[in-house]
Structure formats: structure tokens, C-alpha cells
Amino acid sequence: MEYTVQKLGLLAGVSTRTLRYYDEIGLLKPARISSSGYRIYGQQEVDRLQQILFYRELGVSLEEIKDLVTSPAFDADRALHEHRAQLLEKRAQLDLLIANVELTLAQREGTKTMSDKQKFEGFKQKLIDDNENKYGTEVRAKYGDEKVSKSNAKVKNMTEQQYAEVEKLAAQVHEALAAAFATGDPAGELAQKAADLHRQWLIYWWDQYSKEAHAGIARMYVDDERFTAYYDKDQPGVAAFLRDAVLIYTGMGDA
Amino acid sequence: MEYTVQKLGLLAGVSTRTLRYYDEIGLLKPARISSSGYRIYGQQEVDRLQQILFYRELGVSLEEIKDLVTSPAFDADRALHEHRAQLLEKRAQLDLLIANVELTLAQREGTKTMSDKQKFEGFKQKLIDDNENKYGTEVRAKYGDEKVSKSNAKVKNMTEQQYAEVEKLAAQVHEALAAAFATGDPAGELAQKAADLHRQWLIYWWDQYSKEAHAGIARMYVDDERFTAYYDKDQPGVAAFLRDAVLIYTGMGDA
DNA sequence: TGTTGACATTCACGTTGCGTCAAGGTGTAC
DNA sequence: GTACACCTTGACGCAACGTGAATGTCAACA
């Protein structure tokens, strides 16, 4: 059986342009060219196209597919393993994105209903919130969807008072932190007070408090540059200081 | 505070080229241009860049971001919801890809160790196997990783005899199916025999048999065009016929 | 004051995997 | 013979920049 571009295209479910392109880059050349210049494909080409499309479905680049199908000695195993790793990483990123978008939506909804109710106005969703988003994202990734979902629900149901409370707490954390940072002692009274305020603040976002999670968050503050930047914006080193204070506060310093 | 391209770039973690590009497409214009033609950005631009990067991290296209940040009345909610749906779909596709790659790897490994052991040679991993791959992928997506993982393990541990048996069964399924299809009656004896052979064949891939899963697979044969194409390659309608036969066989026809 | 080196600028092409015209030749059916 | 579906080869367009090339500017140092 012989096929022209369109017939092969219909058979395999690809456009004629795609076949021309594959010819152009040397990925799939027709069996022969007719006297009038038409591309004629045979059974071998059909089989090969099947292979190509199979790898393409796996998301392998055409360049790599070329290696895979042209040189039989090519290390397809290693290529596939690498490709798998890439896909997994991609998915992890995608998961973060999704969690992020969801949290954003939840927050937006929260602010919207609030303003609808005229309970208060001008609730600012700015840089600090962006950071909360990312923070929520990380949490979701590390501690599971459920916890964050509950956090979202909490945000939605917050009252004006609670919002004010949260902002006040956040400000207090900052204040205490700044004072404590000046002492340089994360085990000191001021630092421990900051850590406690931080715990109180956290409770507004989570339904349950655990020392482990609190310590985890604190570690993240240093690992994640977005957070570090946020907490260090006044003075460099504050993020690490808060982490140390919280680790001491939670008694998880050794873990 | 005023920033040149590089300073802003360092601050925000983007390249100078990116800033130039954002200027070019009108996404982020500098606050002013210095007498010597330098782009000068101010605090507003920093804030705006933060927003832009936030949405960019969400995977929103620059074009959409432009709408988001330029018109305050823009329906960001709807945009985000749509974006979320896109992301979810993307992740579902990615999951399929990953499962597919993994199954391919498992099969390759299976064939490799087999041939290493010289147990047999020339085990063909061809079109039919490709179809099995995809089939495995769907299964993984619908019935969870565990089941397919066990299936993979099974493949790995198959002996030459078992492979032969699987191929024989597959052939028998086809044969019985062809004969049954001629009768036109999916409830008939021949069709039910084909369904039973299909069940036996399935058992080689799964560690547990369930009517539900069997029926699910059968339905998939028709929903998924790749499968339909495979089963219908001799005669159109065979896939649907097998589905009907299996649904009757499993007694899941009504579900 | 001149020069060096790090910055800035504007083109402009390259990337991936095709979609989408445009302008023209070919095959076949009526 | 002529209509119409099919084929061909260019060649531009897409997203979001990377990467030169050629050239101008600023601050600092000998």
C-alpha cells in the first residue's frame, strides 16, 4: 500500500504540514518521490511514523526522537529515564502552580465577599499577600492539600474583625522580631515572644497547630528566597533569626 | 529609588532582555527615559513588575497579564478560573505521559532482562505493545498507580512460557472475537467465550480481577480511538462488539 | 585627560513545531 | 474541456525571550 501525504496524514492523524516538516528535518522521508514530485510513503514509513508519534506523545522532542528511531544502538533507556525525570519535575512545578492559583482564587473570593458585604474596605492584597500565597503553596506541597484547603476555607469565612486581627498580629510579629533581632539572641525573651506571636498568626491560617509544621515553616523561610527576601527586606538576617527563634520555641532545633 | 535595567533585573531576578521585551510589548514601560536614552524605573514599576512576575509564575501568558494589570476592572476571577482549568487539564495530560513513559520503561526492562537471560529471543515490542502501553496508561489514570505498578512487576517477572501464553491468549481472543462478530450477537456463546478469554488475558496484566475493572476497560475500548483503531483494524465495529460482550459477561451492562 | 571596563542602547536572527496563506503544477471525474 | 481536489515549494507567524553585533555612556583610575 502506498500513501500520499494526505492519506498518510488521515491514517495517522497528523496534518500534511507535519509530514512535510518531518521530511524537511529528516525525521521521516518518503519512500520515494513520484515523477510529478509527490511524496509517496510505504509500509515502512507508516510503521516508523507510528513509532515517532508514540514518542511524541511521550513529549519527547523531535530531535531526540530522531536519535531514537534512526540509531538502533541509541540508549533509549537512558533517554526515557531522563525524560521521565523531566516530566516529574514539570509535574511538580505544575502542582505548585495549581495550588498557587487556587489559593489566590480563594483569597480573592474572600476579599470580594467581604467588600460586597461592605464590612470593610480597602483590604490590601499586595506584596505581603503574594508572599502568603507562595507560602501557602509550599505548605500545600509539603503538608498536603487538606491543610491548605481548610486554610482557604478559613480565609473565606473570616470576618472583618478577624482580618484586622491578622494584620495586627502580622505587624506585631514584625515589631517583636525587629526588637528581638537587635538583641541577637534567638533564645531570648523578645525572640521567643516573636515566635509565639508568629504561632498565633499561623493559627489564623491553619486549623491545627503543630510544632512540626511550625518548625517546617520556619526552615522554609530561609530555604525559600522569596520568603527570605520578604523577611529580610528591612534587615538581612531576620529570616534566619526568626527560624532560629521558632526552632527553639518549638523545641525542634535538632531535627 | 530609581533603577536601571540591570539593577531592576537583579532586584527582581529577571534578565535585562526580559525588561526590554516587556517594554517592547508594552507590558512594563520605564517611568522615564534618561537624557542618554537609558530606561529608568521607579517604585511603581517595581511593584508592577512584582505583580507581573507573580502572574507569570502562575503560568499566565504575558498577553493576559497585560489585561490583568492594566485594566483594574478586568475579570481577573474568571481569568484565573479558566487558567486553573487549563492547568488541571495540563496536569492530567502530564500524568498520562508519565504513566506511559513508566510503563514503557518497565516493559523495556522486562524484555531486556529476558533477553539477557537468553530465555528467549525476538520478543516483539511493536504496535500491539504500544497499544498495551496506552492501555496501561489509561488504567493507571483511572484505577490508580498501584494496580499498574503491580502489572509492571508482573511483566518484569514473566517467564518465556508466560509470554508465549499471553500471546497465545491474545491470538485466541482475536480469533474468538472474529468468529463471534460474525454472529452479531454479543450475548451469544461465542461472544461470551471471547469475553472470558479476554478476562484470562487481562489476568496476566493485573494481579486481581474485578468485574468493574473489566467492564471499565471494555468501555474504554470504544471511548479511546487508539484502541478502537486497534480492535477495528480487521473489521469496523469489533471494539464496540467486544465491549458489549464484556459488559454482558460482567453483568455491568446497566452501570 | 585619556583610557579602561562595566554598563547602556538598538537591531536582528535563532529557538520549537508546526499553522496558515500564496502562487502555482497535477490527477481525475464529469 | 473544465472544474475541483490534491500536490508542490516558499515564506511569514506564534511565545518569550537568548544571544550576539555594533555602538554609545558613565564612573573610576593612571
Main sheet specs of chain A: 2 strands, antiparallel
Q: CATH architecture of the largest domain in chain A, please?
A: Orthogonal Bundle
Shape of chain A: rod-shaped
Mean pLDDT of chain A: 69
- N- and C-termini, Cα separation of chain A: 68 Å
- Beta content of chain A comes to under 5%
Describe what you observe in this structure.
2 copies of one chain form a homodimer. With 255 residues, chain A is mostly helical. Chain A folds into 2 domains: 5-71, Orthogonal Bundle (Multidrug-efflux Transporter Regulator, Chain: A, Domain 2), CATH 1.10.1660.10; 80-250, Globin-like (Orthogonal Bundle). Helix content of chain A is 72%, strand content 2%. Chain A is built from 12 helices and 2 strands, in the order ααββαααααααααα. Chain A has helices spanning 5-12, 16-24, 43-57, 62-70, 76-116, 127-143, 145-157, 160-183, 189-203, 211-223, 225-231, 238-250; strands at 32-33, 39-40. The first copy, chain A, has a two-stranded antiparallel ribbon. In chain A, β1 and β2 (39-40) form a beta hairpin. In chain A, α3 crosses α4 and α8 packs antiparallel against α9. The longest helix of chain A is centred in the middle third of the chain and has 41 residues, at 76-116. Chain A starts with a helix and ends in a 5-residue tail after the last helix. In chain A, 29% of the residues are buried. The model of chain A is unreliable at 112-159 (pLDDT under 50). The interface between A and B is medium-sized, with 32 and 32 residues. Chain A binds a DNA duplex (30 and 30 nucleotides) through α2.
